[in-house]
Amino acid sequence: MFSRQVTAHARAGDVVVLLSTSGRSANLLHAAEAARAAGARSWALTGGGPNPLTELCDESIALEGHGANVQEAQLVLVHALCRAFEHRIRARTAAAS
């Protein structure tokens, strides 16, 4: 995600999730700053920390390992996050009906 997209779409109460192997990508650092300016929270999934992105974001998970291993772990975490959202949405839908 890049700062222009965050500026255009992020609002207070949103969460912007940023993935970086190094935690040093300038475009993601700018996106985290844009999220903060918009009143959104930022979560980082990065390689080993601390790094600039983990320091800048509200919450972070820094994964030790080599680039490809970090990316594989990020994929697992994103799938788990999506599964949790899916579970929560289904529970709310069931409670509302």
From TrEMBL:
Q: Which protein are we looking at?
A: Phosphoheptose isomerase
Q: Where is the SIS domain?
A: 1-91
Give GO terms: molecular function aspect only: carbohydrate derivative binding; isomerase activity
The protein's Enzyme Commission number = 5.3.1.28
GO BP annotation list: carbohydrate derivative metabolic process
Q: Which Pfam families match?
A: SIS
Q: Which PANTHER family match?
A: DNAA INITIATOR-ASSOCIATING PROTEIN DIAA, SEDOHEPTULOSE 7-PHOSPHATE ISOMERASE / DNAA INITIATOR-ASSOCIATING FACTOR FOR REPLICATION INITIATION
Keyword set for this entry? Isomerase
UniProt organism field: Rathayibacter tanaceti
Q: Which InterPro entries match?
A: SIS_dom, SIS_dom_sf, SIS_GmhA/DiaA_subfam
